[in-house]
Fold this protein.
Amino acid sequence: MTPERTIPQLFDLTGRVVLLTGGCGHLGGAMCRALAEAGAHVVLTSREADKAQAFAETLPVRGEQRHHGIALDHMDPASIDAGFEAARACHGRIDILVNNAHDPLGLDWTKVTPEAFTRHLANATGYFALSRHLRDHAVARGRPASIVLLGSMYGLVASYPETYEGICGASPVAYHALKGGIVHMTRHLAVYWAKDHVRVNCLSPGPFPSEKAPAELVTRLRDKSPMGRMGTPEELKGAVVFLASDASSYLTGQNLVIDGGWTSW
């Protein structure tokens, strides 16, 4: 019989290569650090190669780890193709993909145009295109792979209108459509790719506002949270390592919600 692996062994990512899009941001940066701390080689992306490489150089290094930053715009099909190949070339393979990049939209339902709405949904198109690249790469190598798509609590529940009133526009309707679609795309890809030994899961954060968020908005969000506080980026670190590693080897097609209980109301 195969010896039972220990918890440190199950969560260990030593030697594995992770491609994480949007790695310089508020949540992306914390997830990059988590994966590096778990032993992975991290290839992170930004639209600007210099910015990505500068951030990669801040990640922790243990032993023979090497981190890289590359240019990739997940809203541009040509950039997706070129960026995936550049990421693969860094270590000769990719084992894990975290689709985190996000092209934002600041228009609520009263102002959004059909064109802006459609463009926002292209975030999901980019997630799919990169995921298919990794699936095909894994099958060609004959190796398993793990894909994590970033969803949101707003892919599950509507926002409270009174939370945003008088501060900013409502949480964009296109964003809700996008994130709900990503949650369900996770299920679809998971069942189609399970036989290929490619796992697909979704990680849906709740309220994790950055320091740029209006103070009154943060107060109102906090008042709606069962835990009475906002999330901090480090509180996604354990979740992303879990989904990326063998600790979740029998988990696919699932949406892991880290929201302080928000969607339990």
